Prior knowledge:
By secondary structure, this protein is mostly beta strands. It has one helix at residues 71-77; strands at residues 6-9, 29-32, 41-43, 48-52, 55-58, 63-68, 79-81, 86-88, 97-102, 108-110, 115-123. The chain has a domain at 24-123: Deoxyuridine 5'-Triphosphate Nucleotidohydrolase, Chain A (Distorted Sandwich). The protein has 1 helix and 11 strands.
Amino acid sequence: MTIIVRIRPLSHFEGLALPAYQTAQSAGMDLPAAVPADEPVIIPPGEWRMIPTGLSIALPDGYEAQVRPRSGLAAKSGVTCLNTPGTVDADYRGEIKVNLVNHGPAAFTVRRGERIAQMIIAPVTRIEWAPVAALDDTARGDGGFGSTGV
């Protein structure tokens, strides 16, 4: 299924390529860092920075954009998204930014155009609460963290 999403490149996005699927069956599109070429962002170990993408979008009603880590960036450098998945709501019109955290042992430099995260467009299911006096019994019951195995 294909949906149309309006995208607005901001002035600091100029010269960068719009997000695109890297393969025919990719679920996400990589987001670029829209930092100035002469001012890369350095993220020391254990710290995080908000990285601009230079993009704003208008999602159709009933959809969200999920901002997720890129596995290669995490595996190679220990850099990932701090809150993941980050949700971009359909009514948000501001710039999409990526909150990158450096879990690696060395400082990480974010350069202009570097692919820093991936974005997945997904349908949203809305619910209505049905208050009840009791819930159905299950084999697990109220067993919480660690209750289903070692």
